[in-house]
Amino acid sequence: MTKPKLIVFEGIDFSGKSTMARWLVSKLQEQGIFTVYAYEPTDGFIGTHIRQILRKEIPAPDRQTMAVLFAADRYIDCQSIQGMLDSGVTVVLDRYIFSTLAYNCETPQEMTAVIDMHGGFYIVPDVVFWLYMNPEKSLERKGKNPAELFETVEYLKKVDQRYE
User: What is the DSSP letter of 107?
Assistant: First the structure.
């Protein structure tokens, strides 16, 4: 039996993370590896609240508060992920702590603070794939759907630099 893995896909919005993560899940399942697709923010209570903020349905807090919300959602998600890994399930995750760092932290001090928030529960991934996408092209791919909180070319350029 293959040791279960935590595999993460990262990148800016519309870079193909979800598509590639789902593709990998199907390929691993075809090989008989029990695999699930998961994503952050989750569909849980905190993740749903984050999604409302991202869709601009409710007012957005400052970046640091957003980072805390993502960490709280991730805390709950990591409990679930660890349970799946312990049960022999490989988890392919669409976004993880790297997104929180890239989207919500502008300084090394902010990054350190976010990493410290995750100290007791963060699961180190076995593999991380970063999908690069030109910010202009990513928003082209989005089409005419309403822009979410972080979806401007200027902001995505900053996010992309932080990923690098």
Answer: S
Contact 1, 72 (CB under 8 A): no
Q: 97 φ, ψ to 5°? A: -60, -30
Summarised one tens digit per residue, pLDDT across range 110-139 is: 889 988 988 878 899 999 999 998 888 887
Burial profile 40-71: b = 16 or more Cβ within 10 angstroms, e = fewer: bbbeeebbebbeebbeeeeeeeeeeebbbbbb
Cβ atoms of residues 12 and 163 within 8 Å: yes
CB of 163 closer than 8 Å to CB of 11: yes
> Which residues partner with 128 through β-bridges?
8
- pTM of this prediction exceeds 0.70: yes
118 vs 131: CA distance, rounded Å:
24
The amino acid occupying position 94 is D
